[in-house]
Amino acid sequence: MVASMSKRRCGVGVSVLDDLLYAVGGHDGSSYLNSVERYDPKTNQWSSDVAPTSTCRTSVGVAVVGGYLYAVGGQDGVSCLNIVERYFLIKKSGAQREEGLLEGAIDADELERDFVVYSSARYDPKENKWTRVASMSTRRLGVAVAVLGGFLYAVGGSDGTSPLNTELSSSSPCLEMCVGRC
Protein backbone atom coordinates (compact mmCIF):
# COMPACT_ATOMS: atom_id res chain seq x y z
CA MET A 1 0.00 0.00 0.00
CA VAL A 2 1.25 3.48 -0.88
CA ALA A 3 1.79 5.88 2.03
CA SER A 4 -0.61 8.80 2.46
CA MET A 5 0.35 12.32 1.49
CA SER A 6 0.58 14.93 4.25
CA LYS A 7 -2.31 16.91 2.67
CA ARG A 8 -5.33 15.67 0.78
CA ARG A 9 -5.46 17.15 -2.72
CA CYS A 10 -7.87 17.28 -5.62
CA GLY A 11 -6.90 19.01 -8.86
CA VAL A 12 -3.29 18.17 -8.08
CA GLY A 13 -0.72 18.01 -10.89
CA VAL A 14 1.69 15.08 -10.83
CA SER A 15 4.73 13.93 -12.76
CA VAL A 16 7.90 11.90 -12.27
CA LEU A 17 11.39 13.40 -12.09
CA ASP A 18 14.47 11.32 -11.27
CA ASP A 19 12.32 8.33 -10.20
CA LEU A 20 10.43 10.46 -7.67
CA LEU A 21 6.75 11.41 -7.96
CA TYR A 22 5.98 15.10 -7.45
CA ALA A 23 2.51 16.33 -6.48
CA VAL A 24 2.05 20.05 -7.16
CA GLY A 25 -0.71 22.29 -5.77
CA GLY A 26 -4.33 21.21 -5.65
CA HIS A 27 -7.25 21.90 -3.33
CA ASP A 28 -7.71 20.25 0.07
CA GLY A 29 -11.46 20.88 0.34
CA SER A 30 -11.11 24.30 1.94
CA SER A 31 -7.93 25.91 0.59
CA TYR A 32 -5.98 26.19 -2.65
CA LEU A 33 -2.47 24.85 -2.15
CA ASN A 34 0.99 25.98 -3.20
CA SER A 35 2.75 23.12 -1.47
CA VAL A 36 4.68 20.44 -3.34
CA GLU A 37 5.15 16.90 -2.06
CA ARG A 38 7.59 14.28 -3.30
CA TYR A 39 7.02 10.51 -3.12
CA ASP A 40 9.91 8.06 -3.05
CA PRO A 41 8.68 4.58 -4.02
CA LYS A 42 11.86 2.98 -2.63
CA THR A 43 11.03 4.12 0.91
CA ASN A 44 7.24 4.43 0.44
CA GLN A 45 7.38 7.91 1.99
CA TRP A 46 6.10 11.35 1.03
CA SER A 47 8.24 14.37 1.82
CA SER A 48 6.96 17.93 2.09
CA ASP A 49 10.41 19.52 2.35
CA VAL A 50 10.13 20.72 -1.25
CA ALA A 51 9.94 24.46 -1.94
CA PRO A 52 6.35 25.56 -2.67
CA THR A 53 5.13 27.15 -5.88
CA SER A 54 4.75 30.92 -5.90
CA THR A 55 0.96 30.71 -6.24
CA CYS A 56 -1.71 28.60 -4.56
CA ARG A 57 -3.50 26.74 -7.36
CA THR A 58 -5.50 23.72 -8.44
CA SER A 59 -6.13 22.16 -11.87
CA VAL A 60 -2.45 22.62 -12.69
CA GLY A 61 -0.78 20.79 -15.58
CA VAL A 62 2.57 19.19 -14.71
CA ALA A 63 5.12 17.53 -17.01
CA VAL A 64 8.85 16.84 -17.24
CA VAL A 65 10.98 17.93 -20.19
CA GLY A 66 14.75 18.08 -20.38
CA GLY A 67 15.16 16.97 -16.77
CA TYR A 68 13.01 19.82 -15.44
CA LEU A 69 9.53 19.58 -13.95
CA TYR A 70 7.12 22.23 -15.28
CA ALA A 71 3.91 23.37 -13.54
CA VAL A 72 1.62 25.11 -16.04
CA GLY A 73 -1.44 27.28 -15.39
CA GLY A 74 -4.19 26.29 -12.98
CA GLN A 75 -6.63 28.40 -11.02
CA ASP A 76 -6.34 30.15 -7.66
CA GLY A 77 -10.05 30.25 -6.78
CA VAL A 78 -10.47 33.72 -8.24
CA SER A 79 -9.08 33.47 -11.75
CA CYS A 80 -7.32 31.24 -14.24
CA LEU A 81 -3.55 31.54 -14.13
CA ASN A 82 -1.00 31.95 -16.92
CA ILE A 83 2.02 31.11 -14.79
CA VAL A 84 4.66 28.57 -15.83
CA GLU A 85 7.09 27.40 -13.17
CA ARG A 86 10.07 25.11 -13.50
CA TYR A 87 11.46 22.90 -10.75
CA PHE A 88 15.14 22.13 -10.95
CA LEU A 89 18.00 20.57 -9.05
CA ILE A 90 21.38 22.23 -8.67
CA LYS A 91 24.44 20.04 -8.34
CA LYS A 92 27.29 21.43 -6.28
CA SER A 93 30.22 19.46 -4.89
CA GLY A 94 28.67 16.21 -6.08
CA ALA A 95 25.45 16.72 -4.10
CA GLN A 96 22.02 17.61 -5.41
CA ARG A 97 20.19 20.46 -3.77
CA GLU A 98 16.51 20.95 -4.46
CA GLU A 99 15.75 24.59 -5.02
CA GLY A 100 12.11 24.90 -5.94
CA LEU A 101 9.92 26.05 -8.76
CA LEU A 102 11.11 28.74 -11.13
CA GLU A 103 8.51 30.77 -13.02
CA GLY A 104 8.55 31.10 -16.79
CA ALA A 105 9.67 28.84 -19.60
CA ILE A 106 13.42 29.18 -19.25
CA ASP A 107 16.41 28.45 -21.47
CA ALA A 108 17.53 24.89 -20.79
CA ASP A 109 21.15 25.92 -21.35
CA GLU A 110 21.13 28.56 -18.64
CA LEU A 111 24.17 28.86 -16.38
CA GLU A 112 24.03 28.02 -12.70
CA ARG A 113 26.54 29.72 -10.41
CA ASP A 114 26.44 29.69 -6.62
CA PHE A 115 22.76 28.75 -6.56
CA VAL A 116 21.76 31.72 -8.73
CA VAL A 117 20.14 31.07 -12.09
CA TYR A 118 21.12 33.54 -14.79
CA SER A 119 18.10 33.64 -17.08
CA SER A 120 14.69 35.29 -16.88
CA ALA A 121 14.28 34.63 -13.17
CA ARG A 122 16.46 34.38 -10.11
CA TYR A 123 16.40 32.41 -6.86
CA ASP A 124 17.45 34.03 -3.59
CA PRO A 125 18.67 31.20 -1.34
CA LYS A 126 18.75 33.42 1.76
CA GLU A 127 15.08 34.32 1.37
CA ASN A 128 14.04 31.04 -0.35
CA LYS A 129 12.18 33.32 -2.78
CA TRP A 130 11.71 33.53 -6.54
CA THR A 131 11.39 36.61 -8.72
CA ARG A 132 8.42 36.55 -11.13
CA VAL A 133 9.18 36.35 -14.86
CA ALA A 134 7.18 36.36 -18.11
CA SER A 135 3.83 34.58 -18.06
CA MET A 136 1.90 32.83 -20.78
CA SER A 137 -0.38 35.10 -22.82
CA THR A 138 -3.76 33.39 -22.20
CA ARG A 139 -5.18 32.07 -18.93
CA ARG A 140 -6.63 28.55 -18.65
CA LEU A 141 -7.63 25.94 -16.11
CA GLY A 142 -7.68 22.18 -16.46
CA VAL A 143 -4.98 22.26 -19.12
CA ALA A 144 -3.28 19.01 -20.12
CA VAL A 145 0.51 19.11 -20.35
CA ALA A 146 2.77 16.55 -22.02
CA VAL A 147 6.19 16.22 -23.60
CA LEU A 148 6.74 15.09 -27.19
CA GLY A 149 10.00 15.32 -29.11
CA GLY A 150 11.64 17.57 -26.53
CA PHE A 151 8.77 20.09 -26.61
CA LEU A 152 6.34 20.87 -23.81
CA TYR A 153 2.75 20.88 -25.12
CA ALA A 154 -0.16 22.57 -23.37
CA VAL A 155 -3.48 21.34 -24.77
CA GLY A 156 -7.07 22.47 -24.24
CA GLY A 157 -8.38 23.66 -20.91
CA SER A 158 -10.96 26.31 -20.16
CA ASP A 159 -10.85 30.07 -19.87
CA GLY A 160 -13.30 29.84 -16.97
CA THR A 161 -16.29 30.35 -19.26
CA SER A 162 -16.08 27.63 -21.89
CA PRO A 163 -13.82 24.73 -22.90
CA LEU A 164 -11.04 25.55 -25.34
CA ASN A 165 -10.44 22.60 -27.65
CA THR A 166 -8.91 24.30 -30.67
CA GLU A 167 -5.87 25.68 -28.89
CA LEU A 168 -2.60 23.79 -28.93
CA SER A 169 0.67 25.36 -27.94
CA SER A 170 4.12 23.95 -27.77
CA SER A 171 7.38 25.32 -26.54
CA SER A 172 10.94 24.20 -26.36
CA PRO A 173 12.47 24.95 -22.97
CA CYS A 174 14.21 28.00 -24.46
CA LEU A 175 11.07 29.82 -25.64
CA GLU A 176 8.18 31.41 -23.78
CA MET A 177 4.88 29.56 -24.06
CA CYS A 178 2.69 31.48 -26.49
CA VAL A 179 -0.69 30.52 -25.01
CA GLY A 180 -1.41 30.71 -21.30
CA ARG A 181 -3.27 28.03 -19.41
CA CYS A 182 -5.02 27.71 -16.11
Automatic annotation (TrEMBL):
Top-level division of the source organism's lineage: Eukaryota
InterPro entries for the chain: Kelch-typ_b-propeller, Kelch_1
One Pfam family recorded for the sequence: Kelch_1
Keyword Repeat belongs to the record: yes
Keywords assigned: Kelch repeat, Repeat
Gene3D superfamilies tied to this protein: Kelch-type beta propeller
Keyword Repeat: yes
Name used for this protein in its record: Uncharacterized protein
Source organism of the structure: Melopsittacus undulatus
